[in-house]
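mind reviewing this stuff:

——
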Amino acid sequence: MNRLSAGLKYGTFITLLLWTLFPIYWMLVITTQESSDLFTKVSIFPRSFTLEHIVNIFVQDQYMGPLINSFIITVSSLLIVLVFGLSSAYVLGRRTFRSHYRIFKSSLMIWILLVRVLPPITFALPLYIMMNDAGLLNTKIPIIVAHVLVNLPLVIWFMMAFFYGVPGEIEESARIDGASEFMIFTKVMLPLVVPGIAAVTILSFMASWNEYLYSVIFIQSPDSFTIPLKLATLNSEQELTEWGKVAGGGLVSVLPVLLTAIFLQKHLISGLTAGAVKE
């Protein structure tokens, strides 16, 4: 019975793993095959090898520009979100508010949560009007602001639990030793919540990197395209039969998120599972 249970467990795990990784493998197979082989009998194993499709998306389709644009937008919004999100989560999670400020705190937390749960399209029109009046359309600023608007509530709510879980004795000891509030936050509290920071970093990175809605609304020039917009053009009617090029574009777009997840894997797992077991 134990062997049967173990066999079912590992069999299920392997099946789910193959189900998850197969799309990436399939993109790799299509990307590295000759165009002539892609129009013959379909095979899950490559019959040829070429880097032509990867080279074409960078040479013919100028794929490097969207990569740089997405990187700038993602990193900029991520830095803003972490700076404001971590500091806000620290204040809301650690500080005790006076009685007449508790209603304000509760209302603020509800509004923060409301911004997160509302559909992103809800904020598209107000943001468009504001950015149009400011003359900032077709720039990276509207998209960065939109990404901050969407990801900031996630960071605040996620990190509040981590800051709240730090024993108060640690903070009191640092305060007795003469540490300022800023030193307590940066030198004491942040190192203790690194798993949570890693988790919100990868989640915010993925959300910004793959975001399409605000990009298609605010970007009007091909020079400002992000990765999702560029991939949409690769799937246009003119490029419909360029399967190798489309798969190559998708494969390249996956790599930054995959490398980030691998780099933060250890902290990501501990961050996502924090609070699952009560002591």
